[in-house]
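User:
I study polymers; will you set down one protein's sequence and C-alpha cells?

Assistant:
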Amino acid sequence: MPLRSQTVSLETYNSLVASIYDAAIDESLWINVTEDIARLTDSKSALMRMQNYNTHDVGACFTYGIDPEYKRLYSEYYAQIDPLVSAVFDKPGYILQTGVDTSVTYRKSEFYNDYIVPQGNEHVMGGMIVRSGSNIGVIGIHRCAKQGIFEVQEYKLLKNVMPHMNRAFNINKHLMESRNQATAAGNILDRMMMGVVLVDQLGRPQYINSQAESVLSKYPCIKYSQPGIQLPKVSDTHALQSLIRRVSSTDGARGDILFITNPVTQETIKIIVLPMSEARSLGLDINMTSVTAALFIETDGTSDTKLSEKVLMDIYKLTHAEARLAASLTSGQTLEKIAESFNLSLQTLRSQLKSCFRKTDTKRQSELVKLIISGPAALIRDEEL
C-alpha cells in the first residue's frame, strides 16, 4: 500500500520496511526497527513486546527511550492492569490513540497516573501486531504533552507498517521453530552411541554426527569427502556403494550390514546400511530431501559401549536376558560371539531373539537393530538413569 505522508519519503518508508524484514531473520534487529519508528513518528519513546494476555507474562521486549526500571515495573505489575492492551486484544490491525479513543476512566486509572504520567507519556498510540491464542505482540509509541497528539501522517505510517511487522513476526516465529527443531534433531543424533552418517543415493555424506566424526578420525583407513566414503579396499567401497544404491532405490528395501577389516590393526569395522524413506521427518538443518540412507558405523574399539539393558527392558518389555541380547546385537556382536561371551547355546539365543522380534514387532535382526538404535533407548546412558 503506498504511503501518503507529508514527512516520510517513499525511500525512507521502503528502508523501514526492509529493516522490518531484516528483523524477521535476526530478531535482535527489532530494537533498530523500534528506534526507527520512534524517530519517524517524532515520538519520545517506543516499544515492541510479546506478552501473554491471560497470564500477563512478558516475553521479548524491545524498547527505545524507556527507562529500564519502567520495563521492570511493567513486567512485574503493570502488565496485569494495562487497559491499553485490553482495548486492542480483539482488534487486529486497529490503531489506538489515547487522545481520541480513551475515556475519562483511563485518565483516572492507576495505570495512567502511576505508570504513564511519571514517564511523561501523555499521548500513546499503538496496536496489536500479531496474536496466537493468548500470546500477542504489541507496539506502542509515546509523546509528551508538549509534542502534542499524533497527526494523520504518523497514524498512516504506523497503519501501513503494521501488516509488514505482522508478517515479519510470523516469519521469525517459523524460523525459530525450524531452528529449534533442527538443533533438537542434531542433539539427538549426536547423543547416539553409534556413528551416524546420512548419505544421498550416490553415497555422498549429508550429515555426520559427533560419534561418527570420532570414529572416522580414529580410523584414517576410512575416508569421507563430498564424492563419498572410501574404504580400505576398492572392493569394499564398491560393496558399500552398491548397498546404498539398493536401499535408496528400492521401495521397502531392507537394510544390510557390511563388515570390513582395518588393514593396520585388523579390527573389525561394521557398517549398517539402512533406508531413510522417513528422512524428512527428522527436522535437521540440512536438505533432507536428498538423504536416502543412514550408515551406522561401529568398530571393535567402540563395541563395548552398549545400550542400557534396563531401558530396553522398560521400553520394549524385554526380559533381562532378551535385553542383554538386544544390547549386544546393537553393539555389533554376532550371535556366535554373544553365545561364547555368556556361555549360552546358539539355540537358546535364537529362542530369545524370536521373543525380541515378537515384542518389538520386527522380523529380522537388522530390523530389530534399526528399531533400537533409532529409538529412545539409544539416547539414554546408564549413568543418566
The domain at 10-182 is CATH 3.30.450.40 (Beta-Lactamase).
